[in-house]
Amino acid sequence: MSTAVPAATEQLVAQLAQQFLPGLVSSCAMPLMLPGLGRDLPACKAWPDELLTEQSTLSGLHQARLRDPVLDIACVEQHRGNDSKSDKSDTAPRAPMFSGDSAVRESVQMRLSTFAALLQAEAHQQAHELLGLGLHYYLAQCALCSQDPALPAVLPELWQDVTRPGWAASQFVLVNAWVGAGSTTRSAPHYDANNNILLCLHGCKRVRLISPQHTVRLGANPVYALSPNHCSLAAFDTVPLELQMEAELRAGDALFLPEGWWHQVDSEPFTMAVNFWFKGAVDGFLQHVSERACSSYALRAMLERTLQQEITRQVVAHRAHCAARTLHLDTTADASSAAGSADAAADAAAAGKTNTPGLAGNSSVGKPSVLSDLWQSECHFEEQCSRLCGMTPREHLATLNALGNTHWKVLRRLLVDCSPLSAEVWVSLWEEHQACNASSEEQVPSPLAAVATFPPEEQAALLQGIQQKRIEFRRATFKQLSCLLFDAPVNPCGSFKK
To answer: β-strand 97-98 against 32-34: which pairing, if any?
Structure first.
């Protein structure tokens, strides 16, 4: 199940309606529902009246209709929709998918009056010449006010319909209108480089969100793409639900979308909305490092942190997988042993023999100890590595020390031939055990004690080999990350290979 986006308190929504203070919502860095934030805005009634029924209002939209500017209207062919694999077996009509990716976006030019006439024809099921062209139409990201000279406001009159006395146009990077026609629409998955408040004015929008931490799993466009904030997925249908959050916006409701959060938006027919983009922490950080000529250091620091997060994720996942595998093997062995003991007891009873009390109920049967066959042979190398990865830190070190005392050949092979991931996991277990017992007076096992029986030069070589495997694992993980994040090999210094 996906998680519902939490709602802000009524007090916070009321405070935000009185005065726009970015810190009220951006400080949490998580999506947040703002129920009823725009319920009393003039646009909630005036825009549907003007565009769907042609009623005259005193709104900014009415003033814009008198000027009748030319608009850029996004369009897609009627047979094009969501092409994700999970939808191909669905016989239901697919919602047309509109993408902001400049590599695939298509649009037509039409005047505001023409677009309004098109909406009214669809709303009342009347004929219109544009409806016979096999296209779906969507007024997408039409600027109402802008601080970007490259993106001037197209419908500045509409700003008065969506603002409040405590909201200043200068506080926002860009404010856009979104108006759908007579079909459901879907915006392609993407993220925004600014914080965003999406406010529904009419109709309904359903938003699915995924945290930036899962960017590498979404097939993000390379950073050199024309639209790096999009990805190869046509929809989130193939993404596990436990990674997703959901929000439903009705007229007057708003949603805070933090910068970098991936989102996909589905809208009912004739849904109207406005969004407010304002600067986030990343923009301020980038400006800060740029002014101090330390962009290269900032990039390197971010890569280091991202790499460490991915290493930690893999280590935790592998430890959990190995622990579950060990539990399954031991449970199966216990069941088999218990069944064998029961059969033996039945045979003994039939023969009139007395069984030894407690033997059949021995819960340790089937669980390999250091003295069992599992650890006495190098033939069980894979299972030995897996069990060592799935142990607690104390169990892990105790096993290594016991192997050093009784089966040093097995220990040597484990240290020499283990995989780079196993080496990283083992060192994490050593470090975790050392950290947990740093303030304890109790003597704790050390990985050095496990190899104490080896000659001094071999001890150093074995431990150095483990460190080399860790470097190998980290290098491979970095290369994988660089391909996923940048779609190009990146060397460990943080610059692109030539």
So the answer is: unpaired
pLDDT at 410: 87
Q: How far apart are CA 176 and CA 72, in angstroms?
A: 13
Whether the Cβ atoms of residue 418 and residue 351 lie closer than 8 Å to each other: no
Element (H, E) at 138: strand 135-146
For residue 396 the two structure tokens come to 């892990």
**Angstrom distances, CA of residue 409 to CA of 378, 391, 405, 460:** 8, 21, 10, 16
Q: What is the pLDDT at residue 457?
A: 82
State how far the Cα of 434 lies from the Cα of 445, in Å rounded to an integer: 9
Residues 6+ apart with CB under 8 A from 24: 12, 15, 16
Amino acid identity at 430? W
SS3 label, residue 291: helix
Provide the token pair at 92.
């239901």
Given a contact cutoff of 8 angstroms between Cβ atoms, the answer to whether 473 and 421 are in contact is: yes
Strand 204-210 relative to strand 195-202: parallel, antiparallel, unpaired? unpaired
Look at phi and psi of residue 36 and say left if phi exceeds 0, alpha if psi is from -120 to 50, else beta. left
Distances (CA, A) of 152 to 6, 111, 114, 145: 34, 17, 22, 7
Helix (H/G/I), strand (E/B), else coil: 102: coil
Give the separation between CA 84 and CA 67, rounded to whole angstroms. Answer: 41
Q: How many CB atoms lie within 10 A of CB 444?
A: 14
CA distances from 441 to 431, 433, 437 (A): 17, 14, 8
Instruction: Note whether 19 and 166 are within 8 A (CB).
Output: yes
The pLDDT value recorded for residue 334 is 62
- Using a 10 angstrom Cβ sphere, with 0-12 exposed, 13-18 middle and 19 or more buried, the burial of residue 415 is buried
Q: How many CB atoms lie within 10 A of CB 205?
A: 24
User: How many CB atoms are closer than 10 A to CB 351?
Assistant: 7
pTM for the model stands at: 0.71
The predicted-structure confidence for 138-190, as pLDDT tens digits, reads as follows: 999 999 999 988 889 999 999 999 999 899 999 999 999 999 999 999 999 99
Question: What would the two tokens of residue 419 be?
Answer: 């995989």
How many residues can be counted in the chain?
498
- How far, in Å, CA of 252 to CA of 41, rounded? 8
- What does each C-alpha distance from 223 to 17, 99, 229 come to in angstroms? 37, 18, 8
